[in-house]
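Hi R.,

As promised on Friday, here is the backbone we talked about, encoded as structure tokens. Could you run it through your design pipeline when you get a chance and send me back a sequence?
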């Protein structure tokens, strides 16, 4: 069973969604630190304008066309935003934790499936063993019947009845072996083995596993507690939106325009592109303070919704804790019941075997009927199957933490 559990845990296809969510949260958190750095962008623009204007020198209107070009760098960074960076980072860390819980919950779910499937296969293996033993017993009974027929103590009807019982056991054996094949396919799917792979199931390995299943309520409770913390940090992040925020901006640029004339030179030609680019260089730096004044009650609505949801989560946590305690108490009662049933069933099974042993002696002497013999035999075998199932169920109950 431990090998099956290890193979299932290594089967990434079963946890693809959970791993994707977890890795996404990690990447988001890692790149969140980059938001502290200033951003840097380049800009460029081209513009043309034309129309009539008043010439200041001649005091007459003239038709003109002006082309201009600008380029530069712009940078900004947030200095203070109400500690929103801290709250966002907390939220991203909690998202990672949420992904871990989701992965652990899925792993636990698969573990439970593997264990229950493996226990069912062990039960079927034991039933196959018992069916083969019953077939051997019926063959022994038929050998006794042949001797009794020769001695004239019974008629051939008993042999027909025993043969019919033998055929029923063989039919049951075929059905049990088919059930094992079907469940083995399910197991191979979970442990990422070829679906037609055959296995030998070790009953004693059930109690030796190191990966223990847990109640699903454990993960639900952990998720609810985390959701409360997420909601609290989200509220703080939302609150930072109503606090003043301070940003630092800087820019560096230059430009060219055909409207920039060189009035020193006769004819007032447009200054050269290179001269304008070098002479029109400008820099700027500034602090910008943004103070929210009115946001139409959004913060009040957010806070009230937070209180409603937190009250709901608190109730859900209390209910889940009670359900978890209920599950533990029920588990303990099932363990006590299983131990008592095993003891009583063991005693009944021993008694039924003694009855069968005496009945077959009487039958071999012709002093009882085949119906009584088969009844004693089937009652004993039925109790053996029940006893083995109780043992395996008890092993399953003992696995839960």
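Update: got your reply. Pasting your designed sequence below so it's all in one thread:
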């Amino acid at each position: 069973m431990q090998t099956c559990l290890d193979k299932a845990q290594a089967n990434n296809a079963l946890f693809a969604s959970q791993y994707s969510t977890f890795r996404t949260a990690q990447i988001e958190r890692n790149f969140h630190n980059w938001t502290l750095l200033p951003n840097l962008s380049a800009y460029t623009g081209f513009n043309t304008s034309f129309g009539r204007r008043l010439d200041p020198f001649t005091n007459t209107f003239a038709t003109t066309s002006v082309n201009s070009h600008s380029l530069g760098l712009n940078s900004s960074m947030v200095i203070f935003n109400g500690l929103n960076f801290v709250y966002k980072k907390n939220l991203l860390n909690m998202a990672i934790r949420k992904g871990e819980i989701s992965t652990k919950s899925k792993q636990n779910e698969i573990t439970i499936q593997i264990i229950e499937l493996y226990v069912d296969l062990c039960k079927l293996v034991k039933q196959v063993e018992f069916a083969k033993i019953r077939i051997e017993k019926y063959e022994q009974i038929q050998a006794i019947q042949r001797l009794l027929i020769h001695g004239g103590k019974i008629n051939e009807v008993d042999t027909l009845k025993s043969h019919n019982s033998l055929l029923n056991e063989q039919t049951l054996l075929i059905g049990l072996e088919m059930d094992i094949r079907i469940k083995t396919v399910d197991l191979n799917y979970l442990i990422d083995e070829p679906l037609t792979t055959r296995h030998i199931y070790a009953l004693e390995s059930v109690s030796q596993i190191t990966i223990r299943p847990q109640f699903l309520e454990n993960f639900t409770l952990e998720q609810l507690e985390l959701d409360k913390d997420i909601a609290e940090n989200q509220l703080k992040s939302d609150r930072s939106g109503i606090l003043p925020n301070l940003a630092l901006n800087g820019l560096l640029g230059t430009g060219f325009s055909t409207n920039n004339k060189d009035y020193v030179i006769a004819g007032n030609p447009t200054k050269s592109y290179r001269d304008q680019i070098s002479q029109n260089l400008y820099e700027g730096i500034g602090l910008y303070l943004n103070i929210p004044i009115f946001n139409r009650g959004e913060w009040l609505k957010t806070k009230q919704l937070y209180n409603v949801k937190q009250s709901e989560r608190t109730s859900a946590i209390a209910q889940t804790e009670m359900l978890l305690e209920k599950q533990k108490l029920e588990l303990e009662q099932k363990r006590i019941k299983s131990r008592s049933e095993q003891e009583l069933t063991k005693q009944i099974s021993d008694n039924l075997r003694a009855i069968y042993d005496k009945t077959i002696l009487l039958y071999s002497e012709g002093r009882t009927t085949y119906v009584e013999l088969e009844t004693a035999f089937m009652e004993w075998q039925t109790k053996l199957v029940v006893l083995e199932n109780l043992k395996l169920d008890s092993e399953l109950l003992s696995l839960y933490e």
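One thing I noticed while checking it: The chain has a mean pLDDT of 90.

Thanks again,
M.
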